[in-house]
Amino acid sequence: MLRSNEQCSYSKKKEWDYIYDQKNLHDKEKVYLKGKDKIVPPFRFGVEDVATKMWFHKLAYPGQCLTNSHLDIIFYYLRKKGKYAKEPKTESHWILGRLNIEERRVYMYNSLSTAMKDSAAIKACQPFAVLLPHFFALFDEFKKENKPVCLDPFEVVKVDGLPQQTSNDCGCFVASFAEYFIDMKPIPPIFDVEKHRDRLAVLFYKYARMKEVEFIDSEDEAPPKGPKKNLS
């Protein structure tokens, strides 16, 4: 599994020297010299292969929208972390939904909170709030918990007091919100997005290198399915 901040800071400069062989940091889409963007062999994560350094560049630098690949891989390992701990377009926006079955609520975490954005985010959560009780009833989850079967929609509740993004960093905010919850830590009101992006990029880069060089694998990592097509 991923290592802590302190462990992953080891030889960080050397790792970034490898990642950032750049010609123009100001051009977000044309960062690397021709032929310098490839990672051969690709880094194998649990759900997808990463074959370009640009994947890490987008993860590390503030103001860049994370793709489906980033969130798929991040949440794959966040799910693993929770278990063992007890490419959207520019106009797309990531939010986090947290289900509390006991309270019959879906808590909505939005890092871009305005009246209009919150309304749209709550609307996006509503289909899940309606369908989840039916799925739980279908698979007898209510009976397993000794609860009466109730098909009423779950309540969607907006979480207030969250740090807010100032650029296209919603994916990083969502991943960090989820990790704070898994670690049972309060979400701080001040959020250093550059620090969090840097940490995520270093963690995944170091872990991929360990898997490649030291043949380290988590015991339940599924074989990669190959790159996914971005359907957004």
UniProtKB/TrEMBL annotation:
| Gene3D superfamilies in the cross-refs | Adenoviral Proteinase, Chain A (3.40.395.10)
A GO molecular function assigned to this protein is: cysteine-type peptidase activity
Question: Which keywords has UniProt assigned to this entry?
Answer: Hydrolase, Protease
Domain named Ubiquitin-like protease family profile is located at 1-181
Q: Which residues form a coiled coil?
A: none
Transferase in keyword set = no
The record's section on InterPro entries has: Papain-like_cys_pep_sf, Peptidase_C48_C
- What PROSITE patterns has UniProt attached to this entry? ULP_PROTEASE
* UniProt key word Glycosyltransferase: no
Q: List the Pfam families hit by this protein, alphabetically.
A: Peptidase_C48 (PF02902)
Out of the domains of life, which is the source? Answer: Eukaryota
Q: Name one GO biological process term.
A: proteolysis
The family note in this entry says: Belongs to the peptidase C48 family.
The protein in question is named: Ubiquitin-like protease family profile domain-containing protein
Which species does this protein come from?
A: Cannabis sativa
The taxonomic lineage of its organism, from the top, reads:
Eukaryota, Viridiplantae, Streptophyta, Embryophyta, Tracheophyta
